[in-house]
Amino acid sequence: MNRSRWLPRRRPGIQTIAALAMAGCATASLVVAGAGVAAGSTAAPARSIAALAQPTALMPGGPHLRGARTAVRPAIGERPAAKARNTFAVPGGPAVLASNPRTKTLYVMTFGATIAVVGTAHCNRLDRSGCRVVGNVPGQAGGFQFVFVDPVTDTLYALFGGPKGFGHSVQVINGATCNAGNTSNCHPVATAPVGKFPIGGSFDAAVHTLYVSNNYANTVSMIDTATCNAIRTDGCAQRLPVIRVGQGPNVSAIDQATHTLYVPNNGPGGSGTQPGTGGTTVSMINTATCNAARQNGCRSPAPTATVGNTPFGATAAAGTVYAWNSGEGTVSLINAATCNAVQRTSCHQAKPTVNTGATGVMGFSNPRTHTVFAVNIDDDTVSVLDTAACNAHHPAGCPALLATFATGGSPQMALPDPVTDTVYVTNNVDNTVSVLNGAACDATHHAGCRRLPPAVPLRGVPGMADVNAATHTVYVANQLTGKVQVIDSATCNARHPGGCQHIAATVSVGKPGFRSDTIGVAVNQATDTIYVVNPGEGGNSVVRVIDGAACNAAQTSGCRRVPATIHVGKVPIGIAVDQATDTVYVNNAGSNTISVIDGATCNGTNRSGCGQVPATLAAKGVAFGLAVNQATDTLYATQTGNGTLAVFNGATCNATDTSGCGQKPATVRVGSFPEGVAVDQATNTVYVANNVDGGDAPATASVINGATCNGTDHSGCGHVLATAPAGRGAFGVAVDQTANEIIVAAINEASVRLINGGTCNATDTTGCSRTPVRKPAGSGSFWVAAGGSAGTAYVSDANDNNLAVISTGG
Predict the structure, then answer these.
(1) How many CB atoms lie under 10 A from the CB of residue 319?
(2) What is the distance between the alpha carbons of residues 213 and 196, in angstroms, rounded to a whole number?
(3) Over 60: is that where the pLDDT of 372 sits?
(4) What is the CA radius of gyration of the chain?
(5) CA distance 584 to 520
(6) The predicted structure's pLDDT at residue 3
(7) CA–CA dist 211, 225 (Å, integer)
(8) 307 phi/psi in degrees, rounded to 5
C-alpha cells in the first residue's frame, strides 16, 4: 500500500522555514506526452511525482525537525475523489498524461498501478459531459511511471518502475483496441527490457526512437519504434542500445532544429522509487547519430550543460530548452543554438533563470499559443510561461513572477490540447483530473489567471511579520539577509498600496545567508519594542531587541543602532508578548522549552536586564506557535508533534512571578500537526491552524472557547467547539478584529483563507462549517500578520521573496 512520507520542501526559503517549523513534448509526432516522474511536495504520497522530486538536504543552519515526523495520511488509492468544479474522478492517484488526438483519447497514468482511458470528444473546456473513465490498462505491483503515445502506429508505451524501483521494462499496448471508443484489449502485446527504474524520456519520430531515461542506471535506452510497436513486436525483445548520461536522468526533451536530446540529471542518491537530488546538469545526445538504428555518434558519457539545482524535466520551444529546477524553484533557459550535442559554446556559462512556484517541475507546450504550462505541486497552481517573450534569446522578457491558475490538490502534470485549447491537470491527492480553459489563461490572455495582490519586494526570504498599529509600521524578518525590514503600513495596505515598493529602513539582527535564520518577530506596543528571534546561531540562539520609537516607518534614525541581545534556548521560533505583564515568551523547538523574558528590564529603552537568564516552561513535544490571551493571562502553545494545544497559566509564570513555571499545562486535542495559534480578544476565542499532514490534505482550524479553557479554568479544554475548513497546508493564523476575519495562511495552495469571526467563534459556531473565502497570495504563504490598517493582512511569501498585501474585506 502506498503511504505518504514526511519530506522537506525544495525551495531554499521553504526548506529552512519548514525545518524550523516542523522538526520534451515539442517533438513532431508526440503531440501530447506524459510528464514522467518529476517533482516535489511537503508531504506527498510516496508514489506521487511530488514525493519523487524532493531534495532532502536542508539549508545550513536549519535543524532537521520536520524529518522527525511520522506521516499519517491515507494511501492515495484510499482517498475519495474530491468534488470540485470542472474535475472528474480518476482513482488511484492520477499523475501522468498522454493523448492521442486521432482517437480523441486521454490516457491518465495513476500511481495505483493503472492507466485510465478517457474520451476527449466530450471532455474538454467546451463540453465536459463525457468526462469519465471508460476503461483501464491493468497494472502491476510497483506501478507505471510514465506513458507515451505514438499516434502514427497507435501505440501506447508504458514505463514500468517496479517495486522499490527494481522494474526495468516498457510495456507496449495496442491503442487500436485500447482507446476511448474501443477498450476490448488493453493488455500489453509486448514488453521491451530497459534499464533500472525508467521514469521519463522522449519520442523522436524522425529516427523512430523512443529514448527512455533509466533513473537508477544513469543511462538512456533506445527503443526502435519501427520494430517495436502495436503491430510489429519483433524488435521489442532485442537487447537495446544504451548511452551513459549523468546521475539520475529524468524527463527529457528534443530540440528538432539541432537534433539534440536534452536529459536532465536530477542527481545521485536515488532508492526505493525515489530519485536522487542535487544534480546540476543536463546531458545532450545527438539524435541524428545516436538512435535505435545508428549509434556511431553515441558518446558515453554524453556531454552536459550546467543548469540549476535538481533538474527534473525539460521543455523545448522557441530555440530554447527550459530546464525545470525543482531544487530551487526556477527554470534555466538554455540557448539551443549555442548549447547542443554538436555546438557547446555556452553550455557551461551562467544561464538566465525564471522563478516558478513551489516545486515547479516540467512544462508542456501549446505551440499555437506559444505557451508552456508547468505545475507547481506545492502551490496547487499551474504557471503560464510565454515562450515568445521569455526565452534564452530574450531573457529580459521574462517576468519576475509567472501568471498562474489554481488546480486541485497536489497537481502533477498540466497537458494542453492545442485543438480545443483545453488544459488537463492531474490532481494526485484529490484523485481527480481538472479540465480547464486554456484560452482564458495563457501567454497573452490572463483574464482567467489568478489575480495576485500587491506585494512588497523583500529581496530575501521572509519569516514572520508583525504590526505596530500606533506607528503604522510593519516589521518583517528576512531569513536570507539577517535583517528586519521596516514598512510603512499607512502607504502600503490593501486600500492604498502605492507605497508597497518602498522599504523605509532595515535593521541588522543576524548573519546573512541562512546562518542566523532571522525568523520570528513580535511587537510590544506598550514599550514600542520589537523582539526578533534568531534560531540558527547554534548554542547562542538569541532574541534581538529593537527600539521601535527610534526605528519605525516615520523615524528611522535608530534603525542603524545595534540591537540588544537575549540568549534563549535551542532553536527558538515562535514568539509572543503579554503586554499586561510585560512578558516575552519564546518557544525553543530544539530544547522543548519556552523562555520567559522580563520585558520591563529588556526593551527598546532599557537594556539593563537583557543579560538575564530567562525562566523556562517545559513544553511537551516541539512547541511551535505561541499566542497570549491578555484577558485571562493565558499562554497557548501548539505542540506540533502530538496534535495538542498546551494551555499555560501566565499569572504564575511571567516576568515578575515565576513560581508556576514548573507547571504541567492543560492540553486540548486539536487537529494533526497544529502550527499557528491566535486569540480573538473580543470574543475570547482561540483559533489553531492544523496542517493535518504537511501536504495537500484538507487542513482545518480548531475553535476553542477561551473563557472555559485558559490558565485557571480547564473545564472546556476537553474538546474543541468546532472545526472549520482552512484550505490546504494551513500554517500561520491571525485575527483582524476590525474586519472580524480569521486569516489562515494556506501554504499548499498559495492562498489565505478568511473565516468569518462573527459566525465562527466561542459563542456562535453556525458559520464554522462554511467553506472559507480563498484569496490568492504568493508562493510559500507561511505566516500572516494583521492589526494595522483596517481590512489588511500581510502574508510572508517565502518562495516569491515578497510580503503580500491582502484585503480581508470579503
Answers:
(1) 17
(2) 9
(3) yes
(4) 27
(5) 12
(6) 24
(7) 10
(8) -135, -155
Distances (CA, A) of 232 to 150, 172, 209, 803: 13, 10, 14, 58
Q: How far apart are CA 702 and CA 670, in angstroms?
A: 6
Residue 83 neighbours by CB under 8 Å, 6+ apart: none
Residue 597 and residue 580: Cα distance in Å, rounded?
14
| Unique residue bearing C-alpha cell 536532465 | 264
Nearby residues of 78 by Cβ (< 8 Å), 6 or more positions away: none
Distance CA(376)–CA(387), nearest Å, equals: 18
Please give the Cα distance from 425 to 415 (Å, whole number). Answer: 6
Question: pLDDT tens digits, residue range 143-168?
Answer: 889 999 999 999 999 999 887 778 89
Shortest CA distance to 403 belongs to which of 369, 443, 455?
A: 443
Residue 623 has which C-alpha cell?
512547541
Q: What is the DSSP letter of 310?
A: S
10 Å Cβ neighbour count for 295? 14
Distance of CA 575 to the CA centre of its chain: 25
CB 760 within 8 A of CB 703: yes
Model's pTM, two decimal places? 0.87
Phi, psi of 686 (to 5 degrees): -110, 130
CB atoms under 10 Å from CB of 567, counted, come to: 17
Torsion, Cα of 754, 758, 760, 763 (10° steps): 160
Determine contact, residues 596/648, Cβ cutoff 8 Å. Answer: no
Q: Which residues pair with 425 in a beta bridge?
A: 414, 434
CA distances from 256 to 259, 285, 286 (A): 5, 12, 10
- Give Cβ neighbours of residue 808 (< 8 Å, ≥ 6 apart): 494, 736, 739, 741, 743, 754, 786, 791, 792, 793
Whether the CB-CB separation of 10 and 310 falls below 8 Å is answered with yes
DSSP state of 367: G
Contact 377, 312 (CB under 8 A): no
| The one-letter amino acid at 438 | G
Tell which residue, 83, 71, 87, 142, has the closest CA to residue 109. Answer: 142
- 283: its cell numbers: 546531458
> For residue 249, which amino acid is it?
P
* Cα distances (Å, whole numbers) of residue 119 to 130, 133, 183, 413: 7, 8, 11, 18
Q: Which residues are within 8 A (CB) of 159 and not within 5 positions of it... i.e. 6 or more apart?
A: 36, 144, 145, 146, 147, 170, 194, 198, 199, 200, 201, 212
Phi, psi dihedral angles at 559 (to 5 degrees): -70, -20
Q: How far is CA 545 from CA 55, 98, 186, 635, 723, in A?
A: 35, 57, 68, 21, 37
> Considering Cα of 121, then 124, then 125, then 131, what sign does the dihedral take?
positive
517: left (phi over 0), alpha (psi -120 to 50) or beta: left
Three-state DSSP at 67 gives: helix
d(CA 663, CA 494): 43
436 by DSSP, 3-state: which? strand
Residue 552 has pLDDT above 70, yes or no: yes
Distance CA 530, CA 317 (A): 50
Show the CA angle centred on residue 284, arms to residues 281 and 286, nearest 5°: 175
- CA 397 to chain CA centroid, nearest Å: 25
Hey, what's the cell of 598? 522580563
Higher-confidence position of 415 and 4: 415
Please name every residue paired with 312 in a beta bridge, in sequence order, or none if there are none.
Answer: none
Tell me the residue length of the chain. 810
Residue 630's CB is within 10 A of a number of other CB atoms, namely 14
Query: How many Cα atoms sit within 13 Å of 395 on the Cβ side?
Result: 15
Q: What percent of the chain lies above the pLDDT cut of 90?
A: 74
Q: Which residues of 241-270 are buried (b: 16+ CB within 10 A; e: fewer)?
A: bbbebbbbbbbbbbbeebbbbbbbbbbebb
What does the pLDDT look like over 207-223, one tens digit per residue? 999 999 999 999 999 99
